[in-house]
Protein 1
Amino acid sequence: MWKGEGFGLVKLPPGSRVVYAPEPFEALEDPEGAIRHALEHPTGDSDPLSARLTPGMRLTICFDDISLPLPPMEAPDIRQMIIEAVLDAAAAAGVDDVVLIAALALHRRMTEPELRHALGHRVYDAFAPHGLLLQHDAEDPSNLIHLGMTKHGEDVEINKRAAESDLLIYVNINLVAMDGGHKSVATGLASYKSLRHHHNPETMTHSKSFMDAPASELHTANWRMGRLIRDAGVKIFQIETTLNTDTFPGNFQFLQKREWEWTWKDRATFMAASKALDAAPPKMARQVLHSIKAPHAMRSVYAGEVEAVHELITADVWAQQGVAVEGQTDIVTMGLPYISPYNVNSILNPILVACLGLGYFFNLYRGKPVVREGGVAILFHPTRPEFHPGHHPSYIDFFEQVLTQTTDPVVMHQQFEEAFATDPWYIHLYKTGHAYHGVHPFYMWYWCSHAMKHLGRVIIVGGDPATVRRMGFHPASTLDDALEMAKDVVGPDPTLTHLHTPPLLLADVT
Amino acid sequence: MRALRIDRKLTRFAAARVASAFGAGRGAVLGPLRLVDVTAPSLPSADWFPVTPIRSGICGSDLASVDGRSSLYFEDIVSFPFILGHEIVGEMVADGIGADGEPLLAGQRVVVQPVLGCAARGLELCPACRAGDVGRCGCLTHGHLSPGLQTGFCRDTGGGWSEGPLVAHASQLFAVPDDLSDDDAVTVEPMACAIHAALRAQAGADDTVAIIGAGTLGLGVLAALRFLADTGRSPSPRRLMIGARYSVQRQMASAFGADDVVEPRHLDRAVRSATSSLIVGRPTGRSGVLSGGSDITIDCVGSAESIAEALRITRPGGRVVLVGMPAKASLDLAALWHREIELVGAYAYGTETVAGESESTFHLALEMAGTVGTGRLVSASYTLDRYEEALAHAGSAGSRGAIKIVFDVRPKRAVSQRED
């Protein structure tokens, strides 16, 4: 069971059900070859990449940022492999106006080491010194273009360089089923003015789940915007990839095994690692864990027209991560690890704890949630009131100024969001430092909307009591205590399901 | 009669300082304060009257005296031994005359404006006293009284922490309306301080005001700013913010009309947010100076740390009002110089000019006590016998869910009658 910067063994009640992630699929034998094949044999209504590259054209290559994959993968990163192949093709076609853009949306800017890891030294050194490696700036009006409004009144405003290029190539890592598709450009390259139309409590509440496209209002909104972008004449060549679930390297491989399959070496490593992490100060434990690079391997790659590519890729994601789960449960337990999309090389602060548990893990389903309506979610995490002041400055103020007033996403959306979104200091830090946008903690809280409405109670085992209570949840010191508290809500003899993730899994609940 | 008296014994002052390291008010155990039998003070002149205290509050300056931590500045303007207690509601022992020249009847409740200015000392009025600014009187060591800035720090007047009469000059006496409770009345003196501080702040309608400290004074200043605005005497500030550590303080701050009640350690960030300022330098959030900041910061703590924070969070050209009683402090004044911040002291009370009218601060405070119900600030009362407990409680009021601790010094006969 993960519990932040550590893990331990927890004895679940007899009869509990544990949902494990599927075994990792075999890696592609020749990923570079698969990439080249995808580029020249596109999916959907698209010419091969080589046919779309012409001398004198403006080419922009956008790529997913630090939030993917999790944990960051061992070098070479999948983005590096794809972008090197695209650049080879561009060079062969005589294209010399090429710009790379990290599709940050409202995420923090990547550091040089992070960019070097994602792109490789060769690409970085060829572009960054010449100002050709950019990071999307959602607060730079001079480099945003308003392409129009959808029939639903949604502004579509995206990166100007990308929109005005003769070809926009987007490089995706589809870690989970909600990644990619029209969301890549419509969200990754958008401004706050555009994002606010779907990153709000209403949309999030009606996304059941984010991983189930037909049932996701977030997906639907992005598709409306994506089609408007397409109809506005933006030429997109979409490249999407899947990874297998090989998440932890070498000595940490026991973390992705079923416990009864542990070898003596796994047991010994677990004992040593868990004791060492428990004994280490949180900062040191974080450093150790964030140094882990995942041995993720490419499982598939498709390129071409956005929707056609995404349909194939999403099927592949489900094939790798999907687990059939029969029936809902009264109580779901989840161990929350040290990392989420928004704290790579950073601190999983309390708002991100909530988002990881209730926004992400809760939503790892198709059909219906693993836990029944009115059921209880029991999360394991220390939930200390710790924040990274450089990465998450507005989170600190959100915790102190907003969560002390309300935990209702709708109320905070109405009363507090705009002030945070337009705060000049947060904008300054987002543009010039490595800070998430001022509105970002609101979005993290909105991600929890569906879960908070669905669940009867949220309990955090091991969580700092004052912090947990401020978020409207219930602290417990042990699982036994949590189960006693849960019985007040779900009654005696509840059913319990534990989601054993990471590695990532998608529950297909019938 | 019994009273809590401070004697000038240097060894006891030293012991009190050591004891107070374990918490404010702990100096009562070893320090210069003693519960002793004393004779009632004599009347210095015909316009002085005996007053029997009913209730008397414990103030931060009292704790500093008990703990031997008062500034040496006060050395020459007090006279030992003195009976503490300057927040006083009492009863007239005999018929007398009040500050406004109105007759006061024996048994009538009064509050004591404790400053011992020229009128009380039988002196020709100094310019400050002539202007009604008795708090600024510079003649605190002259006239027919021993030195003493206030009743409660002068050996000739007695003080509120006594079971028998103190003496007060007519200019110090204000009648308490019948509908004002004793708890409301005992807060009149600190509320007068708060009103004076609020007016010294000169807050405008567009101003963001930050208050550091949410004890009696901080909450009082907050209530005063709202009271003055609600009664049309001064503009309502655009935003009132206060740092409050304890839940009882937070609840009271909200009840008194704060727009933002935040953890003290977060006040700088809250001010930054409210004023759309930037933090100068790295986003550490704690040590940085704000690019802008509050228009006015009212420091109701008075420590080096609180003054430094006030300078950090006040906008260039803004004003810091120092209300909490400071002592010797070491701090960096570069921000005050560089940002041209005005540092204003706010002590006591006198006559205020509000909305073009002159009003006694004590009259304003009496009105405010009734309107706002500042007696809510009184959390516990003790008899003099339990003074060590009372002072320890006052020294850790916030953490023990309290705000204002008072002594109930009614004679036992009167207590039993009232309880009947």
Protein 2
Amino acid sequence: MSPTEPIIEARAVRKTYETGKVKVDALKGIDMAIGPGEMVAIMGPSGCGKTTLLNCLSGLDSVDGGEIVIEGTPLQAMSDRARTDYRARRMGFVFQFYNLMPVLTAVENVELPLLVSRVEAREARRRALDALGLVGLRERASHVPDELSGGERQRVTIARSLVNDPAIVWADEPTGDLDSENAAEIVELMRRLNVERGLTFLIVTHDIAVGRKTDRIVRMLDGRVVEEQRLLEVHDVLAGHAA
Amino acid sequence: MTELFGIPIDTFLVVVLIALAGTFGVIAILALRNRVLVRLGVRNLGRRRGRTALIVVGLMLGTTIMATALTTGDTMSNTIRGTAVASLGETDELVSVRGAEVDLGTGLGSATGVEYFDEAVADRVEAAVAGTDLVDGVTPAIVEQVAVQAPEPRQTEPRVTLFAADPARMDGFGTIEGLEGPVSLGDLPGEEVFLNEEAARELGVGRGDRLRIYAGGPAAHAIVRDVVSFEGAGTADAALLLPLAEAQALLGVPDQVKHVLVSNRGDVTSGAALTDEVVDRLYPVLRPLGLDVDPAKRDAIEAADEAGSAFMAFFTTFGTFSIAAGILLIFLVFVMLAAERRGELGIARAVGTRRGHLVQTFTFEGAAYDVLAALVGALLGALFAWLMVLVMAQAFSSVGGGDLDIDFAVSPRSLAIAYGLGVLLTLAVVAFSAWRVSVMTISSAIRNLPEPAVPRRRRRLVLGLAGIAFGLLLVLSGTTGDQATPLMVGVSLVLVSLVPILRLLGVAERIAFTSCGLALVVSLMLPWSMWEAVFGTIAMDFSTWISAGLMIVVGAVWTIVYNADVLIGATMRLFGRFRRAAPVLKMAMAYPLAHRFRTGTTLAMFTLVVFTLVTGVASNGSFIKAFEDTETFGGGFDVRASTSGGTPIVDLETALAEAPGLDTEGITVAASQSFLPIEAAQVGAGRAPEPYVVRGLDAAFLEHTTFGLGKIASGYGSAREVWDAVASERGLAVVDSLVAPRRDQFGFGAMPDFQLSGFYYDEGPFEPVEVEVHDPQSRGTLTVTVIGILAETAPFEMNGLSTSQATLDHAFPGRANPTIQYFALAPGVDPDAQAARLESAFLAYGMEAESIEKVMRDAASANITFNRLVQGFLGLGLLVGVAALGVISARSVVERRQQIGVLRAIGFRRPMVQATFLLESSFIALTSIVVGTGLGLLLAWNIIEDTQRQPSWENLTLVVPWVNLAVIFAVVYAVALAATLAPALRASRVRPAEALRYQ
């Protein structure tokens, strides 16, 4: 894959949920491409298909139509096992409710993806502590999630998402459960990692403040992409509204 | 069955039913007042049917174990009753000379000199009950043992019961069914006899076949007229039936009979209810004639019920640990159920539901599960009991040498008790669990956050001090009353109550629980001798074992749970280097460590059962092994034999010399015993005489025997000295260990009515004891001085007072002739072959002979089968542990759905998720197996060590059936994994996108 080729590409992606007798078309032919090192926000009202799109793009969920290509490889061509291994090696995840393992300490949570990737235990611990250091939580390494604040937990989640040096980090409402101050810190952190380490971020969010920190905002409505805006254009729109 | 937990069983039933009715009444009133709460509680049953099934299984196990124990007792009682009924049929009372042996077909040897009497006594008996409507049959009869030979198939049966009655007076004694319909003894012309099916089968004969009958004199010839089925021929085994007159001619006792049989109105068992009235009427008529009336049927029924109670007591005692584990399981199930609904409960409280309402809702739900579970449990218990008695029948048949017809019985009473106890126990635990979960911080519950720690210093202090005070009171009560159970419970309570006090003093949780846990384990595992060194002599029974066992497991589980991180750290260091295993191991060990309550409860359940199983099996196995010694079991002899009471061998030496075709060169010692039913009472003890037996041992026996003594009276230095004294001095005796009092009570079986007092078999000195022996037939009296008590390893066949033959001959001339023979053989002589030769040579005496080795092999085989049965029964409790793992795993899948989603998202493959769940269960199951086995072996070793200091057991050694245990644990571990497999598979199929969608 050349540096200019998209790292993630969705072509006419469709996804339908069946709940009893009701069919819901969650994604109605999504086309999208995200370049390496890009930070993209997906925004839209509740139920528009943002999280479904993230799940499908990351391989957590299957699609009913279309194609998703990650780093040049079609996801549908991979077995469940191959997709799982790929996630372990090349992807990181950040969730709204942190989803840390409550029975593990911060450092154990962070090192888990490394152990899954069969990194030697001592090396995994060293890298996990480095990752915690990167998010400013090295001194809280031996605390379990219940002993951490919401902001700290989300930083642990971010440390976990980048510890295996992934190509892509998927973040689903990463600031949804945080106050504005903590939310700003988390977005700053993600942006810094994006810039300094060249990580690709795809962030699902309701929060325009988060969107403003990204390179591009993709707006969705009723399972379709209805608008894509570069950061500058967004700023202009916001400024116009303010005026 | 007569008693349960020491309470008359009918009283127990009434108490259980009243308690059940009261409980259901309260629930019904509450339900009528709060119908909404009933609907809220009960609707949960249908919401998750799989879960409901799992809960029902969890709740029913305690009831199953109780029902199994009770039904086993019922069945054994019924089986023994069945044997009595087969032997006695419609006969309820037997009129015989006083002191006649009426105990049909038990033990070794028969009484001799039982006098015949005039058959006209039957008329007097009839007259005594005439017009009363109490009796529907009276007949004069002879019941004797004879040897029978069938010349054509060349089969010989040395012991067949000859039953003869007056054909004209057989009304009321049931029908004799021939192959083509009812037949009568009156149909038999001279020389023709009936054989019952058992005798025909053993002899291999049928209609028209010839027989030779040996009844002491020359062989009499007979022809089989028919093969019949008849209950009441005086035996449940082989019988030969003929008219009274023919039998009198055969035996040379014209107009004489041995019994008058009396059949009460009613069927084979209900007639016994009239026995007291019948005996009251007959006694004045018979006493002047020197005759006695024996309430044979009622005694047999009572003996059967006592045997059933003994079985039930045995299985309920051994089942206590499994029932305790079952209670823990119920508690765990409901606490986890409540944890699952914590959010719902929090919201319910927030919108105005009172705590009492939550308790009621849960109790209604629990009652619904409970009513169903106890019913299934009771029925399943009956099924398990049926399987168990099949195994027992096989075990006992190998001892008796024949098939034991198991009469499976489930009494509604037993099922009602098991059901009632199961329901009440479960409801109590459910109500407690409901109360526990209703105590919540509403805001935390709504957000599903952990319950904030509330400082309860005052409560801890009060609880701790109260526990210590009560514990010390129990210690005091135990030491003053010399009772081990309150003492050990008291010490345990003090140690447990120290935990809150230590925590208040600022001691870390780990140190407080670990130190008290270890103290519990160590103190309760100390050899009994050390306890006695501190507290003086203390008496133990099974309740000591149960309470100590429970507390040992509590101590061990505390120690493990509060130090599991060390265990896990070591495991990780050991296996963590395998990179594939590391993440799975980390998750599998982290969860049990984080959930101390459920891990501890499940560990306790599993460990409790494994501990009991290992202790029971290892100690039982060791005792069984102790019996497998021909020297101990045979008393220095190689073959033992017995003849029927009608044909004693008075002079064995001459009889051997004259025996046709018998080579006596291989016989080095030939010894005899006589057997006399008597009444005995300890002189000066103030108790009434009780029926017992006295054995007359001849000089050869006394000189040669090596039967060990468990207790030797002061003034004698060894067992040999005692036997020599019995031989040389008239009036000295040895008695079996069953009649000796004990401080420690570990027995289950019914003891003889005749008991000694004034000393303890298991400790302290033993001064000679005088016993007055009365022969009811001759009315002679003898006072013997007991100077030794047989070891517990002596065979059952030596039970009774054993004195010299010379003593009996002097005291009761002609009453006790030898009917038991013991032979020691020269090296190289095959005892089995010699036994067969003896039987053949003494056929006319009805001799039955067996090698001691064979008797011991049969007994050992029966014991081993029975021990395996105990293993199986105790193993039932392991189902509790397995069910607990299933419940926990199922709950964990629901609880960790999101976490499983995250694991899948960050790279856990499906098999890794499965492995995590399976390893979690493995951690609990394997830890329990290892810890339970370790503790069980330690306690078994302790028991063996202590027993070695007791009389009889100096050579006892700990024998661990490793292979059996390994097989049991491998199967249980596999089943435990299987129970976790379904939840594990479900967990691995969790789709990450769906799992992560909602908080």
Protein 3
Amino acid sequence: MSKKKSTENYQKTFAFHFFSWLHGEKDPYLGNVEMQPQKEYETDPEMVLRHEKEHDAIMDKVYDTQHNVQLRLFHSLYEITSILFCLFLMALLLVTISYLPATGVAEKPVNNEVAARYIENGLEETGAINIVAGMILDYRAFDTLGESHVLFVATITVLILLRLDKNKKGEINPLTKDMNPNDRIYEPKNDAILRLVASFLVPIIIIFGIYIILNGHLGPGGGFSGGAVIGAGLILYLNAFGFEKTERFFTEKTYKWICFFSLSFYCLAKSYSFFTGANHLHSIIPNGTPGAILSGGLILPLNIAVGLVVACTMYAFYAMFRKGGF
Amino acid sequence: MGPNLFVNYGEAVAAILFCIGFTNLLLQTNLIKKIIGLNIMDSAIYLFLAEKGYIAGRAAPIVTNGVTSAEAYINPIPSGLVLTGIVVSVSVSALMLSLTIRLYVRYHTLNLDEIAAQLKKEGK
Amino acid sequence: MTAFQMILMGLLVICAISVSFSRNLLNSILIYMSFSLVMSLLWICLESPDLAITEAAVGAGITSVLFFVTLKKIHAINIAEKAEEKKSPQHEALQNGGKNE
């Protein structure tokens, strides 16, 4: 007796779907991928012609390149002079470099007692295995505080330049209205492939970023690189799932409070360190055993603070470029 | 001409990259290409600094097996300087790109010559 | 290792030159992206793994994404402008004038 299934039952099985897909009879992604095939970019020939005419008219009127011999001379002279200047600069730099001490040799003025001191006493004084992290977050922490504030100020400036003003009803201020063209025309919405890949990748990327931040004093990495990795992961998430999903956990308020707490924590922690005598870096916080994750005194919390600021800044740049606000 | 030009080939490449970026900055009329030129100049400076700190045959400045002699590791100072510099250069380019968008909204072009021409036309 | 470094540096110079000679803006941004990627390989050769991680995340990732978004925004501004111009009576008059000629 053959146990052959009836056609109706057979059509429900996995094998039927698989073989029909194999023979190209059915495309399982047909209804699921809503990405429209992109239209060819059509240039309106009239528009192009008109733009070219306008451009030529402006150039003729202002520069008058046909008749104004002086201006034409100036243009060619400018190009020749700048090329010559760059060649001269290159030759000058190369000659200077040929007199510099050789690369890769230990005995040269760059490797002076400062670097030797950082390497020899760094582990003992800061408790960080990664000497670079110990340097930028302990010996030179004030410098890094300035860098974090540079990021914060840059975000604020971009916000001033690209922000769309909204009133209480949510209407956009007409003065800034031309800043708000709908740039999501070509965006593939509900793209199944991108969403699947992103749902695999985003957790891995963010966990890797957290790992880099937390291991900043034990290996290569730290707040700056880990924050940038987390920011990249958030950008991928935003691209795949849209603003509705990210607005649930990241708004302007979140950015404000994260930056406020991170920067003021950094500031307070290091001013405490300065108050207790920054020149020999003794504080009541123990350095711990080198190699443990809870070691290195203030380096781990400072790394977390810097990482939060950098991640928020990277995400905020992207969000402001995309829709003018968070 | 000194003796070390071909020994210092890393620094020489950094100088060449710097000049290429500077030429971009001078001769390109497109704003986005100017910004890319500035970024290339940034990278050239970082390369120069890192080449200065590199010592052949020594390890990265991460303490391994408890060895803390200055003989074992490369110079950590350029790494620390460049690390913060890279992140700051991102914020600088973001600032420049947002200014570019504002200019495009106002003048509808990325060409610097055309912007100058329109400014002249407006009588400023 | 030195030969590898030299190859990477040659790639850097080629990328930097071809940025200025490519006609398409998108192409030049992609070339800049590969420039950053080569740079992050070079940092590993120069024994600075911190810089390699940062450059790979920042230079090849976020800076290029910001460039792409800028291009996209400019394109969107263009399209919005075109749509508005088609609605405005000035454009119609201009079109009619063109046809009459």
